[in-house]
Amino acid sequence: MMTEPLTVQQMAQRLKAADDILILCHKNPDGDTIGCAGALYHALTAMGRSAAVLCSDPIPPMYAYTRMQLFTGQFAPRLVAAVDVASIQLFGENNRMPEFSHHVNLCIDHHTGNTGYADFTLLDSTAAAAAELLYEVLMEMEAPITPQVADCLYTGLSTDTGCFRFSNTTARTHQVAAKLIEAGARVQELNTLLFDTKSRPRMEAERIARNHLEYHLEGRCALIYLTRDEIASSGVDQADLEELTSLPVSIQDVLVGVTLRQQPGGSYRVSIRTAKGVDACSIARRLGGGGHARAAGCELLGNLENAKSAVLAEVEAELDAQEKE
Ligand SMILES: [Mn+2]
Questions:
Q1: How many whole angstroms from 57 Cα to the centroid of ligand 1?
Q2: Are the beta carbons of 91 and 56 closer than 8 angstroms?
């Protein structure tokens, strides 16, 4: 596909010239796509434009403070702009999304793998979050950075960086955050909500998983698991369990953390997280999966004991291979 790359200035000009703007998020929306949509919505409406946000999935209730208007057909969109969406597949299929996602005019994104589906794209893969990039666009538009806009942008910036802890965090990330704090972002309230608050079902699932904690391979590997019955009885959302996979590798001296979650069909979804120097992807690949260097996964059929021993055998092989290097 062909897209025309834009500079920050050119993107700002195109947004400024537009009206009746439909803003698209990616499916399973995260803080970055929601925060960007909210910030752009509030900035555009403050500048007298009509705008609304469309997402294939519901916006999780914890993001209600972004207070953006969802699209319900209140205007005929004359410009469609996507935020933090790397490919057409990521738009999803619900809420009339396919009516608009097949022709996207503008895209603001920070994913290296952006497929170039939009007519015009502002892409900067050095940005920690799409929100970091959108801040520059809004400045160029001379849009008012109200406390509401600042809250939205801070949401994108902080969630994509794990609260400014991941390796994508740069000096520029902190500089933008500083501007947002000056503009009135409620840092303490948002950090508590976004990073220090868990639902009771999520905490219940964590309690069960922690009770199952096991150490293997002379303590170099830690493993937790949840059966489908345990997941069901805790009442937790599958999506809410994602973050639990970082628990075993957070233990001192553990090099590989493994989390097994039984799926409704009975198979085990395996999440592998590794310390620096151990390749999670190479472990997962030998089990038919894949992923990144520090985080990877695969799916295994069979009962819990079989799934465990299959993973542990490959973890051991990888640790041994790495020791010989
Ligand atoms: Mn993002």
A1: 17
A2: yes
